[in-house]
Amino acid sequence: MAVRSLNAVRTDADPVISLRDAALAYGDRVLWSGLDLDVRPGELLAVLGPNGSGKTSLLRVLLGMHPLTTGTRRLDGGNAAIGYVPQQRAIDAHAPMRARDFVRLGIDGHRWGPPLFGGRAVRARVDAALADVHATAYADIPVGLLSGGEQQRVRVAQALAADPRVLLCDEPLLSLDPHHQRAISALMDDVRNRRGTAVVFVTHEINPVIDYVDRVLYLAGGRFRAGAVDEVMRSEVLTELYGSPVEVVRAGGRLVVVGGGEAGPAHCADEEAPA
Fold first, then answer.
1. CATH superfamily, domain at 1-77+173-275
2. Within 10 Å of residue 120's Cβ, how many Cβ atoms?
3. Terminal CA-to-CA distance of the chain, rounded, Å?
4. pLDDT tens sequence for the chain (275 residues)
5. What is the pTM assigned to this prediction?
6. Taking the alpha carbons of 150, 199, 85, 241 in that order, is the dihedral positive or negative?
7. Cα–Cα distance for residue pair 40/166, rounded to 1 Å
8. Pairing assessment for the beta strands 44-48 and 198-202 based on DSSP bridges
9. Domain boundaries of the chain, sorted by first residue
10. Residue pair 228/216 in contact by the 8 Å Cβ criterion
11. Can you tell me the distance from the alpha carbon of 216 to that of 207, in angstroms, rounded to the nearest whole number?
């Protein structure tokens, strides 16, 4: 079992993310309401829940892409302080872009026209981001030729290149084999420890990251529960959230969630927001 640094979360620091009495609804459908949430520097928050519970929608709210129905959202440093790792998508094997060029888009990809190559400061930031995710060895390989796990490291490097205070990750373990799931989870822990970056980690599977998580935010049935893993991942808590019997079984250091009625168990891929 991995050992997480107990000093990673800077409990004496002001939150970098704050939601107060936050609610999000699409018409009559309420995804969640009354949400008060603070995330501090160095904290790793896992966001769990079934399809349609509002996990990806929460990230969109934090990104400033979707307004809250009610309540307030505050990010220390504004939107510029956010790095974002989207759900994994296949990259064309024939794409000529090298890994380092892909990472550089995190610095000047928003600019109109070709990138301003040759800047030592920009190259140093790209190299530092690649080193942070242990991807220096394949920095000059076309990104389409990298394995799924290597591509995901490069995506994380791109998100880190602008030195964000907050890293939002939407299903970063999706489609990865168990070995790479564990590697990416350990990488997130390493990043938040060294950089003091707050990490909000949407995932359908708690087990690869369970050794590193400080708190869980569980969304289900228009309700939520936040707290330490042992406080939230309990049969009686999830039964209340789902409104039907749920059993949380601990076996061999793993959590297995069974039940949840028609909503299904927690560990499934996230939803797309309703139109």
1. P-loop containing nucleotide triphosphate hydrolases (3.40.50.300)
2. 7
3. 42
4. 444 444 567 667 889 999 999 999 999 999 999 999 999 999 999 999 998 899 999 999 999 999 999 999 998 876 668 999 988 777 888 888 999 999 999 887 544 344 545 578 889 999 999 998 889 999 999 999 998 889 989 999 999 888 889 999 999 888 788 888 888 899 899 989 988 999 999 998 889 999 999 999 999 989 999 999 999 999 999 999 998 999 999 888 788 888 765 444 544 433 444 33
5. 0.84
6. positive
7. 9
8. parallel
9. 1-77+173-275, 90-164
10. yes
11. 12
The single-letter code of the amino acid at 58 is: L
* Helical axes 148-160 vs 120-132, angle rounded to 10°: 130
- 3-state secondary structure (DSSP) of residue 251: strand
**Whole-angstrom Cα distance, residue 246 to residue 50?**
13
Amino acid identity, position 69:
T
**CA-CA distance, 15 to 73, in Å (whole number)?**
12
